[in-house]
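Dear colleague,

Following up on Tuesday's group meeting, I ran the structure prediction for the two-component complex that the binding team flagged. I've pasted the input sequences exactly as they went in, so you can double-check that nothing got truncated or mislabelled along the way. The C-alpha cells for the whole assembly follow below. Feel free to forward this to whoever is handling the docking comparison.

Inputs:
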Amino acid sequence: MFALEEYKQRLETVKKRMVDEGVDVLLISNPSNMFYLTNYSAWSFYVHQMMVVTLEDAQPIWIGRQMDASGVGKTTWLDEHHIISYPDFYVQSTERHPVDFVANILTEIGQSARTIGVEMDVHYFTALCYERLKHGLPNAKFKDTSSLVNWVRLIKSQKEIKFMKRAGKIVEKAMTAAYERVQIGVRECDVAAAIYHAQIQGTPEYGGDYTSIVPMLPTNENTSSPHLTWTDKTYENGDFLTIEIAGAYRRYHAPMARTMSIGTAPNEVKELAKIVEEGIEATLDFIQPGMKAEEVESVWSKTIGKYGHRKSSRLGYSVGLSFPPDWGEHTVSFRPGDETILQPNMTFHLMPGIWYSDYGVEITETIRITDKGHELLTNFSRDLYEKPVLGILPDEQTS
Amino acid sequence: MFALEEYKQRLETVKKRMVDEGVDVLLISNPSNMFYLTNYSAWSFYVHQMMVVTLEDAQPIWIGRQMDASGVGKTTWLDEHHIISYPDFYVQSTERHPVDFVANILTEIGQSARTIGVEMDVHYFTALCYERLKHGLPNAKFKDTSSLVNWVRLIKSQKEIKFMKRAGKIVEKAMTAAYERVQIGVRECDVAAAIYHAQIQGTPEYGGDYTSIVPMLPTNENTSSPHLTWTDKTYENGDFLTIEIAGAYRRYHAPMARTMSIGTAPNEVKELAKIVEEGIEATLDFIQPGMKAEEVESVWSKTIGKYGHRKSSRLGYSVGLSFPPDWGEHTVSFRPGDETILQPNMTFHLMPGIWYSDYGVEITETIRITDKGHELLTNFSRDLYEKPVLGILPDEQTS
C-alpha cells in the first residue's frame, strides 16, 4: 500500500480533472483505476462493482458484491461508511442488475441529477451497465470519462517507479527461466510453467504478482500472430519462437519480449532480428523528454525503412499499473498523430514487433523517461538467442 | 480442436436459437463463445473483436485487429473470406472505434437493417461499443442475446467431458503442489508459484492451459474475502488458508477449493469445515437429473441450517469452457428461483464456501450430472488438511 497522503493526492488530482471536464460524479469501473485510488486488488471484477468519486466526499465509495466487502475493508483505506455491498441475488441474474443497485445508492446520496462521468469504453462497464444506469437515473447527464483516471496515472511517483523496477527484475528472471528451459523434446507448456514459476516466486526479497496478460510464446509460423499463447507440442531442432511476458510487482508491470531459436535460427529471422535491434537502438538514442510521442515512432520507421521493412502497428504504449485483460494504460501510443509530450517518469513498453505472414520477431523494452533521456527498467541482452542444442554439435544443426 | 462436424453442429444449434429469439444476425463479443464456435483462443480480446453469425452464412465471420488475423487463419476452421481485420489506428484511438469498422462491414454484407443480437452484459461489449453500433446502423433493431451461446454450451459433448476430466487431473496436481509447499517460513507467493507450475505443466500426457481466474489463497482473517489472491508474507504456525484454483485443459476448466492450516487449525475453522463437508455430502447424495437447480441449494441450506449456519451466496454455477475474467458460464446457478432442470452432461462448480467476518471455509467440487446422479471430476479428499509442522511435535503445535 502507498502512503495515505499519496492516495489523497491522487484523489485530489482526479477531482481537478473532474472539474475540468464538468463532471460532478465519477463512476469508476476499471479495476486499475480502483486500485490506483484505494489499493483494492481482489479478483472480484468478474462481477459488477464500481467506485464512486464525488467532488464533496473525501473518500471514494466502493459498491460491490456482498462477499467482497470484507476484503475492501481489510485492504484499502476506505472506512466502513464508504463500503456498500449488494446482495448475492443481483449476481448474473436475469431479473436484477447490480447497476440498478448502484443507481439507487446514487439517488440516496443525492447524486441522481448530476453530471456523471462513466468509463464508456472500459471492459468492465458493459452496454447493459450503461442502459441500466440511464434507466435508474433519468435526471442525470452522462459524459464519457473513459480514461480520465488513466491520464492521471501517466506520470509515476518515485514509489511507483520503484515497484516497476522490481517488476523489471522479475521479468529478467522469467525470461532467463524460459531461455534455460527451452530445448529439443521439451514441451511449450513446460516452458510456460517455468516462466510462471519465476514470475510469481519473484526474488528472495519480494514476491511476484500475476501479470495482466499471460505468457505468449508462439512458435515458428505462429510467430506471425503475437497473441497466441502455448500448446503442449515439443520443440524440435531449428524451431524459433517469440516470448512476450511481463514481471509484475503489486500490480505494477514491466513487460519484455525476446526472440530465440533452438539451434540455428532461419536466415530471415536472423536478418529481421538485426534490423529490429538496430531500430530499437536508434529509437532509444533519440528518446528524451519534450518530444512528441509520434516522433519516437518516426525515428523507428525511418531506421527500419532503410531496409525495406515497415511496421503497421504502433511502436509502444504507456504501461504501469494494470489488471487483466491488458497491461497497457490506454493513454499514450507511439504512433503518427499522437502529439503527447514526453515527460520525466512516464513509462512505456517500447514494442518493436514485426509480424509477417509466416514469421515474426519481437524484441522490446520497458523504459522510463528521465530528465535527459531514458532509463531501461530491465537489463537483458536484446540479441536473438540461438540456444545451443544438447547433444548436437554446432555444425550439425539444421537451420 | 474439435471435429469440424462438432463445430457445425454447434453453429446450427446457435442458429436455431437465433430463430427462436427473432434475431437475424448475432454479434459475439464473449471470447468463450468465439472459441466454442471456431477454436479461436488468442489473448487478443483486450482489443475489440467480434464474431458475426448470420442465418445464411455457413461460417461465422471474425472481425478483429490486423496483427491477430493470421492467428485466426492458422488456428480456426474459418476460411480467408471470413477473416476481416481493421487497421491498427483503430486501436485505443479517441477518433475512431473498431465497432465503426464492424458496422461498416455489416452494411457492406447487407445486414444493416436486420434484427441484431448483441451480448449486452458481456465484459468485452462495452457501453461505447453499443453506442457506436447504434450510430453506425441506424436502421437495425437490437436485441439482448447476452447468454444465447452460453446456454447452447450448457450440455457438454463427450469430448468436452474428456477435456474437463483432464482439467480435473491437473487441478488435483495443483492442489497437491500447494499442500506440499505450504509450510512455516514459506511465502504465499512461493505457494502460488508452485500452483501455477503444476497447472501449466499439466501431466506427462497433456499440458495445462491458463485458468480464467488466478489462484486465490487468502490467509487467516482474509479468508473472509474469497477473491483476495496472495502476498509475499511468510506463513506462521497456526495460520489457515483457503485455496481456490482450477485446472484448465484447452480452455476447459475444473475448479476446486480446499481449506488447510499449518499445524492445528482454529476450532471455529475445524467446526465449520465439518459442517461444510456434511453439507456437500448431503447435497451430492441428492443431486440427479430431472431436479431443479434451486432444489440443490435447498438440500444444502437445510443441512447446514440444522447447525445454525447460513450461506447467503449461491451454492454453485455451471462451468466448462471459459476465458478471463471468469470461469463460470453465466447460465445456471444453484440458488432459490433458478428452475433450470438438471440434465446429464451439465457440469457445475458446486461451491459451498461460507465467509464470516473474520474467517471462511471453502470445500468445493466440480461435478458432471450423469444419467442417474452425479460424477466428481476430481478425486481429492475434502477433509480440512492440517499440515504437519516441520520440527514441531503435534502436541507442541499452537491452535
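The domain at 158-396 of chain B is CATH 3.90.230.10 (Creatine Amidinohydrolase).

Cheers,
M.
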